[in-house]
Amino acid sequence: MTTNEELFTRALGVIPGGVDSPVRAYGSVGGVPPFITSAKGAYVKDATGRTYVDLVCSWGPALLGHSHPAVIEAVQKAAAKGLSFGAPTEAEVELAELIRSRVSAAERVRFVSTGTEATMTAMRLARGATGRDLIVKFAGCYHGHSDALLAAAGSGVATGGLPGSAGVPTAVTAQTIVLPYHDEVALEECFATRGQEIAAVICEGAPANMGVVDPGSFNLAIRRVTEKYGALMILDEVLTGFRVSAGGMWGLRSASEGGWAPDLFAFGKVVGGGMPLAAVGGRADVMNLLAPLGPVYQAGTLSGNPLATAAGIATLKLANQGVYDHVDSAAQTVIDIVSSALVAEGVPFGIQRAGSLFSIAFGDEAAQAPLINYAQMQAQDTWRHPAFFHAFLDAGVSLPPSLFEAWFVSASHGEREFEAIAAAAPIAARAAARAVKPQ
Ligand SMILES: *Cc1c(COP(=O)(O)O)cnc(C)c1O
């Protein structure tokens, strides 16, 4: 049998940091990441044959749980007919129609392979549509790893404690304005001074890459100011889309907030059902600026790949209201279990939540009220997290290896998994309580 240590050593010799996406390296929690061999339902299995209750869910896509039989069958059937054609298929049309039936404001949809491409394309479209260059983003929001959007990005950039990224030209960062999240005054002031130069404001449906933050009325505020100045609003629902509700965060909140809609959406994660698929969607007049109809170029050899579209269609067809209700209540159950364990050990913490997405924040400030921006998130008692995380892992529960990521549950998380989490939580809470603040 191969151990995770042996695999990690081998990986380090051939893959930078041993991983293909930074957070997987366990940098902020220490230790060796389990190398996963298979996943089923609420569980992942590592190279040693050990299984873990999975609260990462591939960072969101596994809404139904891993390896849902209907999704696997759909992919197998598609694979038998050919892996890639480089030509249009009926499945792409069907998936685009499914998306629009859930998110009516996504009047047109273009498929790409990753969330990064989706936000990058949305940004180019906004610039093409407005003839303006500047993009406004919020500190701690992650929109993938394209040059212009890496400024003050959350997720792995936050976990690694990096200021941004080397290799991004200053000329590119100069086109990105970074504002604090939930700061309507800063947003208004920014537009009052540079409103005529701003192509778009991009925001997450609910920030979930600096830990989870409830948007409250901030999406509506963004909509109002962008409309006033003729800028576009790009709602990045790569993580929240089709996960927090059938229509994502927009579907969950827009109707009760005056019916606002962004001009453009970015989708990813759940929409591909675990396969590399993402999408840009939005207003028909803006979307139709894309080549071949319009002057904004975008293309992809594997875009709308038949295996990926098959997984997306099967996933969305199964993701009914019952699934969303289950995921909501499973999130609440996990929150209750972990909260009572932390309370029992006297650890100061708060629950950060938006829909079914949640994360834990450590510290007195988090215990007072939910944290609302990146500066607050970074000021947590982050030193409590490694011990908390590893106690859970040792007990067979795999949490996101960073305080700056959301926890994910699925339609497959039920009583058996809650029991495992409940058995591990007191040990993890004790480890968090005993963690020592570095001097
Ligand atoms: C994951 C994520 C992305 C990037 O998607 P990739 O498929 O990893 O490129 C973009 N935006 C948000 C909000 C995300 O959570």
TrEMBL record:
This is Glutamate-1-semialdehyde 2,1-aminomutase. It comes from the Bacteria. Keywords: Cytoplasm, Isomerase, Porphyrin biosynthesis, Pyridoxal phosphate. It is found in: Cytoplasm. It catalyses: (S)-4-amino-5-oxopentanoate = 5-aminolevulinate. GO terms for molecular function: glutamate-1-semialdehyde 2,1-aminomutase activity; pyridoxal phosphate binding; transaminase activity. Belongs to the class-III pyridoxal-phosphate-dependent aminotransferase family. HemL subfamily. Its main location: cytoplasm. Pathway: Porphyrin-containing compound metabolism; protoporphyrin-IX biosynthesis; 5-aminolevulinate from L-glutamyl-tRNA(Glu): step 2/2. The gene is hemL. GO terms for cellular component: cytoplasm. The lineage of its organism: Bacteria, Bacillati, Actinomycetota, Actinomycetes, Actinomycetales. Its cofactor is pyridoxal 5'-phosphate. It is an enzyme of class 5 (isomerase). One of its GO terms (biological process) is protoporphyrinogen IX biosynthetic process. HAMAP family: HemL_aminotrans_3. Its EC number is 5.4.3.8.
